[in-house]
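haha ok so turns out i had the wrong file open the whole time. this is the CORRECT one, sorry everyone. sequence first:
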Amino acid sequence: MCDPVTALAVVSVVSTAASVATEIQGAQAQNKAIGQQLQQQNQQANVQEVSSLNDRARQARVEQGRMAVAAGEAGLQLDSGSVEQMLLNSAMQQKQANEAIETNRDNQVAANTSEANRYYSSVQEPSVIGAGLRLVGAGVTGFAQGRSALLANQQISNQSGKQAAGG
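then structure:
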């Protein structure tokens, strides 16, 4: 027959170990979900950046085409100083717009990362030391409870024996 003191200690440790394992799995699942959300948000920022860059390039081509048509209709050559200056100005504006779009994406990714880090910091994952202390504490508590139950049982048995013997 198994010693009841040891049995209570083992049951307490096993129960606590299962609880700690469940907490660790939950924390890992939360961390994975946060990472997936960050990846999805950054992917959306990248898609938005590409779309904006393409839109701006399209606008610049239309603008430069209009300038070239207007210059041709006015009888100016495309390599004349004023037409060339307007085309260079349009290209410079496109470059500045592209830089602003890229900066916006970088800022969005930084904000996404900051938000994910905030969520990561709120995940409660037990440390190795904390889990060890909980297991030791559970073992000690289980042992103490088993020992108390055993002593109480012995006292009841002794009192029952005295009452039966002499009453």
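The mean pLDDT is 85.
again sry for the mixup
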